[in-house]
Amino acid sequence: MGEIEDRRWKVGELAQATGLTVRALHHYDDVGLLVPSERTSAGHRLYGDEEVRRLYHVLALRRLGLRLEQIAGLLDDDSVSLAETVRRHLEQVERELEHQHRLRGRLRQILDALERSVEPAVEEFIEAMEAMTVIETDVQDVLIRLPAEGADEPPPRNAREGQRMVLLRERAGERVLPIWIGAQEGDLLAARLGEWPQHRPMGPDLTARLLETGGARVERVVIESLRENTFYASVIVSAAGESHEVDARPSDALNLAVRVGAPVFVTADVLDQSSVHAGVVDTETPEDWRSLSREVIRSLYPREAIAEWERYTRQAWRAMRFAQEEARASKHDHIAPGHVLVGLLREQEGLAARILDSLGITTERARGRLRHGAGADEEAATGVLPRTSAAQRIIELTLDAESSKLPQRVGTEHILLGLVGADEAALLDFGVAADRVREAVRRAMDPPDDESRPAARP
After folding, report:
1. For the chain, which residues make up each domain, given as ranges?
2. What's the pLDDT score for residue 1?
3. DSSP assignment of 274-310, as one string?
4. Picking from 76-80, 269-273, 295-299, 372-376, which range would have the lowest pLDDT averaged per residue?
5. Cα dihedral sign for 206, 306, 181, 136?
6. Residue 160 CB partners (closer than 8 Å, separation 6+)
7. Who contacts 239 (Cβ-Cβ below 8 Å, separation ≥6)?
8. CATH architecture of residue range(s) 2-76
9. Is the confidence at residue 321, as pLDDT, over 70?
10. Fewest CB within a 10 Å sphere: which of 28, 103, 157, 238?
11. Distance CA 412, CA 341 (A)
């Protein structure tokens, strides 16, 4: 065991053992991502145990979709522990195995029928072919092109126009499909992926609500072809027991998919072309491409940022993130008011958690109500989950309540008021009426002069 721990790997040996190329290891050394611990008298690289562990960390984070410059920053400041990376890597591998398990099950059904001299149902062949010909992806990121030398400065005004690049990452693999879309559609997609609140419903929101109102459901979105540098998509919608295929631009289809929680597929032919086609860039994006982050959006739309996106406190953002996590953990395909309630309780720094605790409402009790509510799916949901009409109403009421008090920031206590405003009976199962909640919030926000005022903001 001691010999293994004390081993020094030559660059060629490490490349062969890990399946990498020597050129890749040289590149990691050149950019300072993986520097060998020693060199021989002839200048040859030697890697020790610590470098091997770091190399795994680098490769696992690459597979999880991070770019090399992002990985370097995370490892240098210890933002991501090795244990967390292994956990996330394991989760991805388990998703890949689930996909292969589903295909294996379909093939076994067909084979069992054939071995029994029974003609398999046509639907079984269709399901198997779909698993082979389309590949499920995740909407990973939206990028904007900015001058490299001005990367740390606000984007120029004309950056509000032009195009964006959306990245679709193969769920059961490492390939990434970049698609060019319009600026407005890209900004809307980035805003939804980032869970940034919007005061007014936009085009994709209207489409999603109309489909919901009409009893239709988006089954999936498929990026189905690439012709003359242009991608074509279809939206498969089920209504009244029938399935309909509707042609769409990828930008519209993807915006709809992330709002209703529909899976996004890419045909195998398109994904196979993605790394070689002239209209598609490499997954290692150039330095002048940046993620369309909340900060970039703020600089593009300063007035809107002040009016809406900037109004949420850090605690309010985290509470809504926790609501997403609770929905996924419960294997629900949507965010309902119950998930929002648990999110408020989990955000212990927020004023809402203290108010709810004083009313006898705990995280355990709220989760118990979720378990006794709507049934869960067989598989855990992924991606950005859509909100039910009631949950969306909470956000609308939260923003409306504060619209006349800018630059007042929206905290967890305002989301709690939105919760009871959207549904007066939301907390009655806990023995708490809406008026009692409003009074508790009022007292917490405006305590008597001889009491210390709770800190609701960072």
Report:
1. 2-76, 136-303, 312-445
2. 39
3. TTT-TT---SS--TTEEE--HHHHHHHSHHHHHHTGG
4. 372-376
5. negative
6. 183, 300, 301
7. 214, 215, 216, 217
8. Orthogonal Bundle (1.10)
9. yes
10. 157
11. 10
pLDDT at residue 436 tops 60? yes
Query: Are the C-beta atoms of residues 233 and 179 closer than 8 Å to each other?
Result: no
Gap between the Cα atoms of 99 and 167, Å rounded:
21
30-64 per-position pLDDT tens digit:
888 899 988 888 888 899 988 998 898 888 887 66
Q: Is the pTM of this model over 0.85?
A: no
* Separation of alpha carbons 124 and 188, rounded Å: 38
CA atoms of 248 and 246, how far apart (whole Å): 6
CATH topology of domain 136-303: Bifunctional nuclease domain (3.10.690)
- Amino acid 314 reads R
45 forms beta bridges with 39
State how far the alpha carbon of 449 is from the alpha carbons of 210, 307, 446, 453, in Å.
49, 31, 9, 9
Token pair of 114 as six digits: 């054939």
* Contact (CB, 8 A) for 430 and 345: no
Q: Which residue type occupies 450?
A: D
The answer to whether the bond into 36 is cis (omega within 30° of 0) is no
219 touches 237 (CB < 8 A)? yes
**Which tokens hold the place of 171?**
């769920």
**Residue 145 CB neighbour total at 10 angstroms:** 16
The domain 312-445 having CATH identifier 1.10.1780.10: the answer here is: yes
